[in-house]
From TrEMBL:
Signal peptide range in chain numbering: none
Gene3D superfamilies, alphabetized: Homeodomain-like
Keyword Disulfide bond among record annotations: no
Alphabetical UniProt keywords: DNA-binding, Transcription, Transcription regulation
Highest classification ranks of the organism: Bacteria, Pseudomonadati, Pseudomonadota, Gammaproteobacteria, Pseudomonadales
Stored SMART domains: HTH_ARAC
InterPro entries (alphabetical): Homeodomain-like_sf (IPR009057), HTH_AraC (IPR018060), HTH_AraC-typ_CS (IPR018062), PchR_regulatory_protein (IPR053142)
Protein name as it appears in the record: AraC-type DNA-binding protein
Record GO terms (molecular function): DNA-binding transcription factor activity; sequence-specific DNA binding
GO biological process, one term: positive regulation of metabolic process
Domain annotation HTH araC/xylS-type: ranges: 219-315
Pfam families named among the record's database cross-references: HTH_18
C-alpha cells in the first residue's frame, strides 16, 4: 500500500477486549487511537497502492480514532452493524445494504467515532489516488474511478451496484489460505474496481457537430470557470452546459492551456489568495473560507506547496 496510507498490513483476533492503539493497525500518522475491541481485523496489500481489509469488531467502550487520510478512494461494504466517521468535519455514515465509496482529492483529517456497545462487520478496499489516475491515463474507460478524486471529498452510497457487494461477500468468506488466499484477494479486489468503473460509467454523450475549435471551447470553459471561481462547476456539468463530451472538453482545455481544469482552478484560487493576503484586510482563515477551503490547514498545505512558503509569510 502507498506509504502515506495510515493503515498497516496486519491481522489480529481478540477474544477479549484489547486496546486498539497496541494492535498495529495504524502508522505514526494516526494522531490518536482510543478504545478497545473484541473480534478480528485484517488488512493486506494485494498490489502496490491497493489494500484489502475486513473486520468483525465489537467495541465495549467508545472508540475514537483521529488520523490523516491521503488522496485516495475507499470502497466499503458493511455486512453487519455500522460505521461512521467525520472527514473534514462532515459526518459520513456506512450502513448495511449497498456499498459506499469515499473519494478524497487531497489529504484530509478524519475522526472515527463509535459508541460503546456498537459493532462493525465490513469489507473494503483502499486505493491510492495516484494509482487510479495512472489507470485512467492508460485507459479512458477507467476515468469514472479517477473522477471520484475530484472536488475535495466525495461520499455516496452505490445503489444498484449489487455486483460489488457480492464480490466483497466472497472476499470476506474466502475459504482459501496462504498463496491461494493472496491470489483470491488480488483477483476479486481488481474485479471490484472493474465493476465500480462500469457502474460509474456515464451514458454515451450525444455526438456533437464540430462547430467549435478546441481553442474556442477551451476559452469558453475558462470564462465560465473564472466567473464561478468560488464554486466552479464540475467537469461533467460544464461539458453538458457547453454541449460537448467530457473527454472532449478535458482534452481541449489541456491542449490550449497546458493543464487540467482542476489544476487551473486551484492555481487561480491560490493566486487570488496571494492578492488578498497582500491587501492585509483579512485573516488567513477568512481567506481560506472565502476560497472554499473548509479546513484552513488544507489551505495552508496547498498554499505552501504552490508558492514554497506558508500564507502567513506574505508581507
Amino acid at each position: 500500500m502507498d506509504r502515506r496510507n495510515p493503515y498497516l498490513d496486519t491481522h489480529f483476533c481478540f477474544d477479549h477486549p484489547e486496546a486498539l492503539d497496541q494492535a498495529g493497525v495504524f502508522d505514526d500518522s494516526a494522531r490518536q487511537v482510543m478504545g478497545s475491541a473484541i473480534g478480528h481485523y485484517r488488512a493486506q496489500t494485494v498490489r502496490p497502492h491497493v489494500q484489502y481489509f475486513d473486520c468483525d469488531l465489537q467495541f465495549p467502550e467508545p472508540l475514537r480514532i483521529h488520523k490523516v487520510l491521503p488522496d485516495s478512494v475507499c470502497i466499503v461494504q458493511v455486512l453487519g452493524g455500522q460505521w461512521q466517521h467525520r472527514v473534514d468535519g462532515r459526518l459520513n455514515q456506512y450502513t448495511p445494504g449497498a456499498p459506499h465509496v469515499l473519494g478524497l482529492s487531497e489529504s484530509m483529517e478524519a475522526m472515527d467515532q463509535m459508541p460503546a456497545g456498537s459493532r462493525a462487520r465490513m469489507a473494503g478496499l483502499r486505493i491510492g489516488g495516484d494509482y487510479l489516475r495512472e489507470l485512467a491515463e492508460e485507459d479512458p474507460s477507467l476515468k469514472p474511478l479517477a473522477r471520484l478524486l475530484d472536488d475535495g471529498m466525495h461520499f455516496s452510497e452505490l445503489h444498484g451496484c449489487r455486483a460489488v457487494g457480492r464480490l466483497f461477500e466472497r472476499l470476506y468468506h474466502s475459504p482459501y489460505q496462504g498463496a491461494l488466499e493472496r491470489l483470491n484477494q488480488e483477483s476479486l479486489s481488481l474485479a471490484v474496481l472493474v465493476e465500480l468503473a462500469t457502474h460509474l460509467a456515464p451514458q454515451p454523450a450525444k455526438p456533437m457537430a464540430p462547430l467549435r475549435s478546441h481553442s474556442d471551447l477551451a476559452h469558453e470553459a475558462r470564462f465560465k470557470l473564472d466567473a464561478n471561481l468560488m464554486n466552479p462547476p464540475g467537469t461533467l456539468a460544464l461539458a453538458r452546459e457547453l454541449g460537448v463530451g467530457e473527454t472532449t472538453l478535458r482534452r481541449a482545455f489541456s491542449r490550449v492551456y497546458g493543464q487540467s481544469m482542476l489544476d487551473y482552478v486551484r492555481q487561480q484560487r491560490l493566486e487570488l489568495a496571494r492578492t488578498l493576503l497582500r491587501q492585509r484586510k483579512w485573516h488567513v482563515a477568512q481567506i481560506a473560507h472565502r476560497l472554499g477551503y473548509a479546513n484552513p490547514a488544507n489551505f495552508n498545505h496547498a498554499y505552501k506547496a504552490y508558492f514554497g512558503h506558508p500564507p502567513g509569510a506574505e508581507s
